[in-house]
Design a protein that fits this description.
One of its GO terms (biological process) is cholesterol metabolic process. Its main location: membrane. The chain is α+β, with helices and mostly antiparallel strands. About 50% of the residues lie in helices and about 10% in strands. A hairpin with a 4-residue loop joins β7 and β8. It starts with a helix and ends in a 6-residue tail after the last helix.
Length: about 1350
């Protein structure tokens, strides 16, 4: 790579290979022949000559003139003097290889090459040189007494200079994706180059070592002797310079690109978020306004009936207009305008049930009877049931050691058959995995900017250019390079296979690469001919603008991209260096920091990465120590390595483990206290406590989780860290809620005459009443999660499977083992044994009401006397609740589409970790995008000219070729996210083949490096028109030579450094290959997945073009050829392309499962099922709105939480709806109040308070992912669930609750009665 840039710079020197001048009249030559060679540079110097042109007779010289100067040959042959020139045959023979060398870079655009050659031909050989050229300095050789030309002025027409520059300015270098002007315009590079700057650098012998003598170009300035400036013929790049050549391609000539079709002016379209916001507003108006009007009319109608002039239609209503009705009648009138009529309608319905109602009633009765029988059975044999449960859990949980925990992020975020994962697999298997990196970002702290004047202009330089800062950077870089084993694991682009690794061959991207890692070069100070001081700052700035120049190449042989080594220069107030002329140029001089990147080899086999992992570990340990103990105060540092993310996640999990443990301990402690009886006295505290029961219930839940994990361990289904973090929370939420409901049911169930408190019949009746509600909730949740396993996202699928099985097992254990625990606890209380210390009796006998009579707790009294009346007995309050919740729903619906999609990397690691600092720096300061590879799968015949035209980017290539389309996309980087044209190995192979000395072979025809002069040139046969290998045999024979040849000054296009891994050979043919470019700077998750989508759109268009063109030519393949894009991040961000679709699908199928299960288990009651689903949908939409307002993005983690929210919301809704449906009260409002008091208290004390106390602890977690996706979302789930389940749902039921079904008595069973076979039924202490 070093010598390739040198060759390009030497090509510039062709402007002055054979120049000298005299001024005289009439016009004549100013030189002829060569006098001597410069002893320092080795360049030939031309002899001063004042005379007429001389005839050219040498056939070899004439051949060169015909090859490069056809316009001159044609003109001279038609003139009286014939082929008379100011250059001899030797000058022409020297000119030929020099023009060939220039052609390596310029011949991609025939017009540029021909314009360039025309200039060289005219000033070198025209017979009237003195009319446009003036000699300004000469030197006399004392030995030969011959005068050599050292400096000249050429008076050149600006129109020609501009035309030539315009034809060459866009010519690209496929290997680097840059422009040729980056090489041949000196410090200006392509972005700041102009015609005048190009010609100035081309003649500056002081700054361009490849120029033999100084040439001062004077544009549009008249020569001193009169006449016109030199103006050779020129051809625009969009036109062919000769009949046998082609115009430049779009890749190398912007004027040759087809004009973009005019964009039709379309009316401004509303975004999806705006449409949803409008729909939400309309929805609110459609619901709230009619509802308020209806409520107002009802209220007015009620007042009118009770006014003095009112005449109720039904006589019984007169009683309701009593001036002072009793309180309960006054409440009824307020919340039900026609209680009598309502009761009458209910009476008629009960006596005339429909077929579905009768079936539903029988089904409910059967369920209640089955649960009553089962509860009595478990209560009769509690120890046997517990033993069976323990054995079953232990058997299933024994599979936990076999459970695989997925930590590979690829397997976590991408399905095995997803497109991104399959393409990644293909790339890794075909070309090898993407390389590993270790990176250090060093930012100057408290160092001021300073002013410096390079190139006559004073500029303000950022603190990254501070000398002390850069020397500290070098010191750190040296220490890192000295870490043992680097040369064994690093990427070395020009290292030959089998050679001994050398540290200086390692690809280390650093600003010190501009000095070849030499402090001597860094400290060197020179004075240029103009008297300006040249220091390290000039070198840095020059290399930042032209990194491929010879003096800027790194020690390992390659260029250092400035965007990869400078940071902090893309600030809003950064100014371009030369105003609008250089629009788009990065202001590197404003950099505030630098970057050091070590590029390491990667392997698909993890075992082969062991050495790299060890070096990365040493790297991270060294940086940790350097940051803590050696870092200067004026430097801020952030760093990472390939293994750093997994290490940080493991460290974060260990750091957050105590927080999570405290969360669960707090929840367990609350459950243990809350399950007990109200502590009205010391006896209730010691005997009536529920600590043992609570701990047993929690143990059952955790046993269910362990059993589910063990089951999947046996089934070889992998789990994820998300599963391990979320499932216990979910199972504990649902399990504790069910435990509270069962305990409350047993507490409320009164013992019949002669029936013991622990009698199986009493326990059975309680289970019969609570069991259908538990089955409704658990079945809904299990179906919800198991259907959620249909999701294509691995994280969601794993969570759904584990959650479904864990909740199913928890339900079985609660309906069996927890019932047994309730029985044993009742026996303990009856026997006056202490809680937690059942071997000890209470000091005094239990009062009768403590043993037999259920006691009303404080929470139930608050619900019955305060919340329920305040919420349901006032019509205005109910109306306000409905309008408020509908408003919240519509606001959340409008906000949801505006929610961000993606997962910021810094959220996954502890906030104060070094990796978190690195992610913030990456987002704020770094300015390099990730590479992207456009992969051509196996199939095309690359030796076929039509296929070549569809892939290459040079002259005669199609304007819609792969390279051309990527080039066009790079011109619209804001939408395509493509930063530069692609590196095309095919174009460089064509150019390499056209240089006679690039390909060499040994005696037996094997490959030789081109620098091995003992080997013979290959003499590749080329097509005379397109200058490509002439046939398939030639193409395939020498392609391996190209891929093994290292670039040098003589052969800049050799492909080993750039393309060694880009082409896979199958035998002698090409199997697969890629064309590499870069994405633009990507900072947010949206940038990443939008870049993926844009690259896929581009590759799809390329694929269509290739197949359509081949089909039109009658050469369609059996299987269409495919081009696909690949970048290392695609597999992680592909999920976000369909995140909203996946979210809607997962949530929709979960809600559908809840509806179906609710419909069946509520006795085919469509109304009740709809009420549950509507309420859950409102909770989920409100949760989505909260995510937007609280800055929680939509990703796999939050989607898992949303699916879990559906399950938990079932707990908040289904029990209340079931209680409403079973209530025997006479009006909807009273039934809603009854359900709220009897079931709402269990929901509030169970799932709400249990989860709330545990969630609060998560706020203190160190990991941001816990703080954002667990604390915030869990808190939202609980708060919205409680608000809807305990406030909105009762009010909603009071308006639209379903009409009660006729009650069918449950079938009687002997187990429902006291049994003499069970001594514990008569004597609670018999079995103690």
């Amino acid at each position: 790579m070093r010598t390739s840039a040198a060759a390009a710079a030497l090509a510039v020197a062709i402007f002055a290979t054979t120049t000298a001048a005299l001024v005289g009249e009439p016009a004549h030559c100013v030189w002829y022949g060569q006098c001597q060679k410069d002893p320092v540079t080795g360049h030939s110097l031309n002899c001063q000559y004042d005379g007429p042109p001389k005839p050219l007779t040498d056939p070899d010289g004439i051949a060169v003139l015909e090859k490069w100067c056809p316009h001159m040959v044609e003109k001279l042959r038609s003139s009286p003097g014939g082929l008379a020139t100011c250059c001899d045959s030797q000058q022409l023979k020297d000119m030929d290889p020099n023009l060939d060398m220039a052609g390596v870079f310029l011949q991609r655009c025939p017009s540029c090459m021909q314009n360039f050659a025309n200039l060289v031909c005219d000033y070198s050989c025209r017979g009237d040189q003195s009319s446009f050229m003036e000699v300004t300095e000469t030197e006399v050789d004392e030995e030969t007494n011959r005068t050599s030309v050292l400096a000249v002025k050429i008076f050149l027409a600006r129109a020609f200079a501009e035309a030539t520059y315009d034809s060459c300015k866009d010519v690209s270098m496929p290997s680097t994706g840059q422009r040729v002007m980056d090489l041949i315009c000196g410090e200006w590079g392509s972005r700041r180059c102009s015609a005048e700057r190009w010609f100035t650098f081309a003649g500056d012998a002081d700054s361009n070592e490849y120029v033999p003598f100084t040439i001062e170009y004077r544009l549009d300035e008249a020569p001193p002797g009169g006449g016109a400036p030199l103006q050779p013929p020129s051809t625009p790049c969009a036109a062919a310079p000769r009949e046998d050549s082609a115009a430049c391609s779009c890749v190398d000539c912007a004027a040759a690109c087809p004009a973009a079709p005019p964009r039709a002016k379309r009316p401004a379209a509303l975004s999806d978020a705006q449409v949803v916001a409008i729909v939400a507003g309309v929805l609110f108006v459609m619901i709230a306004v009619p509802f308020v009007v209806w409520e107002y009319r009802r209220a007015s109608a009620g007042k009118a009936e009770c006014s003095p002039g009112g005449t109720p239609a039904v006589g019984q209503r007169l009683a309701a207009c009593d001036a002072s009705p009793p309180p309960h009648r006054r409440a009824d009138q307020d919340h039900d305008p026609d209680p009598v009529a309502s009761t009458s309608r209910r009476h008629d319905y009960l006596h005339q049930p429909g077929l579905v109602a009768r079936w539903g009633a029988r089904w409910e009765a059967a369920l209640e009877g089955a649960f009553a029988w089962w509860g009595a059975l478990c209560a009769k044999w509690p120890w046997l049931v517990l033993l069976g449960g323990v054995v079953a859990v232990a058997a299933l949980a024994s599979g936990v050691p076999h459970l695989e925990i997925t930590t590979d992020p690829v397997r976590l975020w991408a399905m095995a058959d997803s497109r991104a994962r399959l393409e990644r697999q293909y790339f890794d298997e075909t070309f090898g995995p993407f390389y590993r990196t270790a990176q250090v970002v060093l930012k100057a702290k408290d160092l001021p900017s300073f002013r410096y004047a390079p190139s006559k202009k004073e500029m303000e330089f950022g603190p990254a250019f501070n000398k002390t800062f850069l020397l500290e950077v070098k010191k750190l870089q040296n220490s890192l390079e000295d870490l043992a084993g680097l040369e064994e694991v690093c990427v070395a682009p020009i290292r030959e296979q089998g050679s001994v690794p050398m540290p200086d061959e390692c690809a280390v991207l650093s600003v010190w690469g501009y000095f070849q890692n030499s402090e001597d070069l860094f400290n060197a100070v020179e004075v240029d001919p103009r008297g300006y001081i040249i220091s390290y700052i000039d070198q840095l700035l020059s290399c930042a603008h032209n990194p491929v120049s010879v003096e800027c190449l790194a020690q390992w042989g390659g260029p250092v991209e400035p965007t990869a080594v400078f940071s902090g220069f893309l600030s809003d107030n950064a100014e371009p260096e030369d105003g609008a002329e250089n629009e788009g140029l990065h202001p590197f001089h404003r950099a505030t920091g630098v970057v050091i990147t070590f590029v390491l080899r990667n392997h698909a086999d993890p075992e082969k990465n062991a050495a790299a992992l060890d070096w990365e570990k040493r790297f991270l340990e060294f940086m940790d120590n350097w940051d803590a103990n050696e870092r200067p105060n004026f430097i801020e540092v952030s760093y990472t390595a390939e293994r750093a993310v997994e290490d940080a996640l493991a460290a974060g999990s260990r750091a957050d483990a105590p927080t999570v443990a405290v969360s669960y301990i707090v929840m367990v402690a609350y459950v243990a206290v809350a399950l007990g009886r109200p502590a009205r006295n010391m006896y209730n505290l010691l005997v009536g406590g529920g600590a043992t029961l609570g701990l047993g219930g929690v143990a059952l839940v955790l046993g269910a989780v362990a059993a589910a994990a063990g089951t999947f361990g046996y089934a070889d289904v992998a789990a994820t860290l998300v599963v391990l973090e979320v499932i216990p929370f979910l199972a504990l939420a649902v399990g504790v809620d069910n435990a509270f409901i069962l305990a409350a049911a047993v507490e409320r169930e009164r013992a019949r005459a002669g029936e013991a408190a622990a009698a199986p019949s009493r326990i059975g009746r309680a289970v019969g009443r609570a069991g259908p509600s538990l089955l409704l909730a658990s079945a809904s949740e299990c179906c919800c999660f198991l259907l959620g396993a249909l999701s294509t996202m691995p994280a969601v699928r794993a969570f759904a499977l584990f959650a479904g099985l864990a909740l199913a097992l928890a339900f079985v254990l609660q309906c069996s083992c927890f019932v047994a625990l309730l029985t044993l606890d009742a026996r303990r209380r009856a026997a006056r044994r202490l809680d937690l210390c059942c071997c000890f009796h209470a000091p005094k006998p239990a009062p009768p009401h403590d043993v037999h009579a259920p006691q009303e707790g404080l929470l139930r009294r608050l619900f019955r006397s305060a919340l329920a009346p305040a919420l349901l007995r006032r019509r205005r309050t109910r109306a306000v609740v409905v309008v408020a919740f509908v408003a919240l729903l519509c606001l959340s619906l409008a906000a949801a589409p505006r929610m961000r999609v993606g997962l910021d990397q810094e959220l996954a690691v502890p906030e104060r970790s070094s990796l978190a600092r690195y992610f913030r720096t990456l987002k704020e300061d770094l300015a390099v995008g990730p590479p992207v590879y456009f992969v051509v799968r196996n199939g095309p015949d690359y030796s076929d000219p039509l296929v070549q035209d569809l892939l290459c980017g040079g002259a005669r290539c199609r304007p819609d070729s792969l390279t051309a389309q990527i080039h066009s996309a790079s011109k619209n980087a804001e939408e395509s996210y493509i930063a530069r044209p692609a590196a095309s190995w095919l174009d460089d192979y064509f150019d390499w083949s056209a240089i006679s000395d690039c390909c060499r072979k040994g005696v037996n025809g094997t490959f030789c490096p081109h620098e091995t002069l003992s080997c013979k040139p290959c003499k590749i046969q080329l097509d005379p028109v397109v200058r490509r290998p002439i046939n398939i045999l030639i193409f395939e024979k020498y392609l391996p030579f190209f891929l093994r040849d290292n670039p040098s000054m003589q052969c800049a296009k050799a492909g080993h450094a750039a393309y060694a891994n880009a082409v896979v050979l199958k035998g002698s043919a090409v199997g697969a290959s890629y064309f590499m470019t870069f994405h633009t700077v990507l900072r947010t998750s949206e940038d990443y997945f939008h870049a993926l989508a844009a690259a896929r759109d581009l590759s799809a268009n390329i694929t269509r073009t290739i197949n359509n063109v081949l089909a039109a030519a009658g050469r369609a393949p059996e299987e269409p050829y495919e081009v696909f894009p690949y970048s290392v991040f695609y597999v992680f961000y592909e999920q976000y392309l369909t995140m909203w679709t996946d979210a809607i699908f997962s949530l929709g199928i979960s809600l559908m499962a809840v509806f179906i299960v609710s419909f069946v288990l509520l006795g085919f009651d469509v109304g009740s099922a709809l009420v549950i689903v509507i309420t859950i949908t409102m909770i989920i939409i409100d949760l989505l709105g909260m995510m937007y307002w609280w800055d929680i993005s939509l990703n796999a983690v939050s989607l898992v939480n949303l699916v879990m929210a559906v399950g938990i919301s079932v707990e908040f809704c289904s029990h209340t709806v079931h209680a409403f449906a079973k209530s025997s009260e006479t009006t909807r409002t009273r039934r809603a109040e009854d359900a709220l008091v009897n079931m709402g208290t269990s929901v509030f004390s169970g799932i709400t308070l249990t989860k709330f106390v545990g969630i609060i602890v998560l706020a203190f977690a160190q990991s941001r992912i816990f703080q954002v996706f667990y604390f915030r979302m869990y808190l939202g789930i609980v708060m919205f669930g409680a608000a809807h389940g305990l406030v909105f749902l009762p009010v909603f039921l009071s308006y639209v609750g379903p009409t009660p079904r006729p009650r069918t008595p449950a079938p009687k069973d002997i187990l429902m009665l006291p049994s003499s076979a069970d001594p514990s039924a008569a004597d609670p202490e018999a079995k103690e």
